[in-house]
Amino acid sequence: MSLKNCYNFDDFRKLAKKKLPAPIFHYIDGGADDEVTMNRNTDSFNDCDLVPNILNSVGEPDLKTEVFGTKMDMPIFLSPTAMQSLYHPDGDKASARAAEKFGTIYSMSTMASFSIEEIANLSSGPKIFQLYIHKDQSITDDLIDRCKRANFNGMCITVDTIVAGNRERDHRTGFTTPPKFTLDSLMSFAMRPQWVFNYFTNKKFELANLKDKVEKGTNIAQSVMGYINEQYDPAMNWKDAEYCIKKWDGPIALKGVMSVEDAKKAIDIGCTAIMISNHGGRQLDGSRSPFDQVKAIRDAVGDKLEVILDGGVRRGTHVLKALAAGATACSFGKAFLFSLGAGGQQGIERLLQNMHDEIRRNMILMGCKSIKDLDESKIIFRK
């Protein structure tokens, strides 16, 4: 199997599984507890049907939209995801370059493998930064200030990870950052010699944005769950989010909003956007899927917020359904991480080209000249 034979999410996943050691693969692939919510994130799209209109003389449909004050050539962008160099040595560099090539947004995680400054110097494409509020406020302040100096276009504050979800696959595989080679995992690493070669011959793994502030996770191996529980502030509240919003003073979203009530509060504290997200089903298992909540939230906030659906997107038709339900745009994580693991920058470009082609083709089949034509009349929810 090769990249040219990757036509969908499952193809990229299978190829990544062949290339990545089990602890690394399962860190991408897994969710919390019984993984009910993780699976529901995608399954929820099947509870809704598209309703096409015919003979609309669509021609070449317009896929453009705007979020975070940034114009995008298609209504989907890369979600912020941590430690990308574990999946391919180029990590965030590959993601930023691919996103720029396709005219869409690259999102950087606080726990990225490359620094704010490195990526800002590498790519002139649109970039947003995902902020975790740390117990040590100086870390939070430093990250915001550095993003300002690097001219990032926007920011999102992740609010659903104040304590780590119970990711049982990580318990079983013993996944840590940096990876720890134990007797249990040694065979899996040994069976992926190319990954091992890349890991030891490329840039040393580190949490590049945090290395000068935090030893664990960079120079001292620690589980991701352990890092979250030790470093992130479980007492984070609305005032903390408002402080960051004012300090940033630019386009900003809360990432992890799932309720109508919280979406309204986001407006009150100065957000320009929200990302409807349950962290890929990796936090609270048994929660609603983002798609389940889009319509109710859009009905409640009107045009006062950009509404971004984050989670479960696998197909171009998922994007069309989300937009018709009221989303401004979508973002996705697992899909592009598997494509990164499968083939680096070329893998992500293959994925983005597939998604672009699916969205374009299906808009034509829907009779939609522009994504603005995607409204409630284009979908029916099954009872």
List the helices and strands and how they pair.
Blueprint: H1 9-19, H2 22-29, H3 36-43, E1 48-50, E2 65-67, E3 70-72, E4 76-78, H4 91-101, E5 106-109, H5 116-122, E6 127-131, H6 137-149, E7 154-158, H7 168-173, H8 183-190, H9 193-201, H10 224-231, H11 238-248, E8 252-257, H12 260-268, E9 273-276, H13 290-301, E10 306-310, H14 316-325, E11 329-332, H15 334-366, E12 379-381
Parallel strand pairs: 4-11, 5-6, 6-7, 7-8, 8-9, 9-10, 10-11
Antiparallel strand pairs: 1-12, 2-3
- Weakly predicted, low-confidence segments: none
Distance between the termini: 40 Å
- What form results from the Cα inertia axes? globular
Approximate strand percentage? 5-15%
CATH class categorisation: Alpha Beta
Q: What value does the Rg take, in angstroms?
A: 20 Å
| Overall strand count | 12
The helix count comes to 15
Class by SSE composition: alpha/beta
Count of structural domains? 1
**Gross CATH architecture:** Alpha-Beta Barrel
What is the chain-wise order of helices and strands?
HHHEEEEHEHEHEHHHHHEHEHEHEHE
Task: Please provide a written account of the structure.
Helix 12 (260-268) crosses helix 13 (290-301). This protein has an eight-stranded parallel beta sheet with strand order 4-11-10-9-8-7-6-5. By secondary structure, it is an alpha/beta fold. The relative contact order is 0.21. It has one domain: Aldolase class I (TIM Barrel), CATH 3.20.20.70. The N and C termini lie far apart (40 Å). It has helices at 9-19, 22-29, 36-43, 91-101, 116-122, 137-149, 168-173, 183-190, 193-201, 224-231, 238-248, 260-268, 290-301, 316-325, 334-366; strands at residues 48-50, 65-67, 70-72, 76-78, 106-109, 127-131, 154-158, 252-257, 273-276, 306-310, 329-332, 379-381. The chain contains 15 helices and twelve strands. The longest helix has 33 residues, at 334-366.
